[in-house]
Design brief:
The chain is an alpha/beta fold. The protein is built from six helices and six strands. Strands 1, 2, 3, 4, 5 and 6 form a six-stranded parallel sheet that branches. The longest helix is centred in the first third of the chain and has 16 residues. The radius of gyration is 17 Å and the shape is globular. The N and C termini lie close together (10 Å).
Length: 196
């Protein structure tokens, strides 16, 4: 049996209470549990225990991070979670420092990760339409969603984790198509969690 840790990194706001992110978290939990996976979840805007969060990352064969794009990145409560949990993890739970040694301080930066063999998947909800990405004439100047999320990819690479394809729901505030998004999400989970 495989283990999946789902981090619901939505931060509730009056104009965006987080229903879609919660729905996607619950949907992934249900689908994976039905497939025989063990699933644990957390919400970053609530209280958490750093040591338990580190243990959950070590326990997991895959980590799913569900979040809304917020000012071109992740919500502040997830940034705080990373500052709390991932900084503590540098003592060996997630990585051995930054991977360098005093004997050779110029080499191997970012190579100290201890979660080799652990996968991660990002699932984002965005106000931006899909058409805003991958088109040089649009706002993101031809950059993809994964280009925008490069700092998050690098965080997980720092722990030696391996990327799964990113999922996204676009245009969720002004032009939502939730039924289609949920069907795409179901297919994405089914395709990427056949076997780890």
């Amino acid at each position: 049996m495989k283990n999946v840790y789902i981090i619901d990194a939505h931060h509730p706001y009056p104009f965006a209470p987080g229903k879609l992110n919660t729905t996607l978290t619950e949907r992934a939990t249900q689908q994976l549990t039905q497939r025989g996976y063990q699933v644990r979840t957390t919400q970053t805007h609530t209280d958490y225990v750093v040591e338990q969060e580190l243990a959950n990352h070590q326990w997991a064969d895959a980590v799913i991070v569900q979040f809304p794009l917020n000012w071109m990145g992740v919500p502040w409560s997830f940034k705080k979670y990373m500052d709390d949990v991932y900084t503590a993890g540098m003592a060996g739970a997630l990585c051995q420092g930054d991977g360098r040694t005093s004997d050779n301080p110029k080499a191997n930066y970012g190579r100290g990760g201890t979660l080799k063999g652990t996968y991660y998947m990002m699932s984002a909800t965005a106000n931006a339409p899909a058409e805003a990405f991958n088109d040089p004439s649009e706002f993101f100047a031809g950059n993809s969603l994964d280009d925008l999320l490069l700092p998050m990819h690098m965080n997980f690479k720092f722990f030696a984790m391996q990327a799964m394809p990113t999922f996204a729901c676009f245009d969720v505030m002004k032009n939502p198509d939730i039924d289609t998004d949920l069907a795409r999400f179901d297919a994405h989970i089914a395709a990427n969690f056949k076997e780890l």
